[in-house]
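Please check this chain.
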Amino acid sequence: MSYEYPISTDWTTDEIVNVIQFFSSIEKAYESGIDREQLSRAYKRFKEVVPSKSEEKKLCGEFEKESGYSSYRAIKKMMEEPSKKILKM
C-alpha cells in the first residue's frame, strides 16, 4: 500500500480508526475477500462518522483515486449478494 487514507483533522482518534477500518475492509474485499457481516459492521461505523452522503462520496472517491478500489462497488455487492463471504472483487 503506497497511498494515504482520506481522513479529516476534525475527527476524534476513534473516528479516524473507524474510517481506516472501513477502507481496510474495502481493500480486503478486493484483495482476498471478506465476510459480509464484517464489511457491514465496518460500513455502519463509517456511516456514524460520515453520515452525509455527499461527504461519503467525496471520501470514497478520494480513496478510489488513490487505491483503485471502489467502495461503492464493494458495498453494492455486499447488499445484493446473500452469501456470507464477498469474494475477491
About this structure: The helical segments are 13-31, 36-49, 53-67, 71-80. Residues 13-31 form the longest helix (19 residues).
